[in-house]
Amino acid sequence: MSVKFCKQCNNMLYPKDNRRERELYFQCRKCRRTELVEDRKYCVYKNVIKREINMKILESVLNLKAYTEDPSLPKTRMRPCPNCDDREAVFFMNPIQMKDDDIQLYFTCLGCKHSWVDDVREKKEAAKEVKE
Which stretches of 1-132 are DSSP H helices? Predict the structure, then answer.
């Protein structure tokens, strides 16, 4: 990043933010002249919120295959494995919950150790559409 100078008095310009307008300015401390920063290379903070959690990232962080040996996790026979059609799996809620209303259940098959996600919210929305 290069140093900017005031066009009026040739003093150095300093960054100043306008929080209401969410804009960045350069301001001279001597003559108080301001210039709006339009170039994106001066971006100081960028908040990116990703809603989707990639299953591969989750598997690498949590080691989902090891969950099949955890005796404290609940087991189910209601969700067949999409990989081998075995009906026995362990399940748990999303440990990295993004919002309170986004409930995701993670299943790991006891037969082939395959993991998959069951989005409860999507099923509720689909059930509402069927009723209407």
Answer: 55-62, 120-131
> Do residues 91 and 72 make contact, with C-beta atoms less than 8 angstroms apart?
no
**Secondary structure element (H or E) that encloses residue 60, with its range:** helix 55-62
Check residue 26 and report its DSSP letter: E
Quote the CA–CA distance of 2 and 92 in Å, as a whole number: 51
- Compute mean pLDDT per 10 residues along the chain, 132 residues long, and list them: 86 89 89 85 68 60 71 88 90 66 78 79 57 56
pLDDT reported for residue 9: 93
How confident is the model at residue 102, as a pLDDT?
A: 62
CA separation for the pair 114, 35 (Å, rounded): 57
Grouping H, G, I as helix, E, B as strand and the rest as coil, residue 95 is coil
**For residues 28 and 9, is the Cβ–Cβ distance under 8 A?**
yes
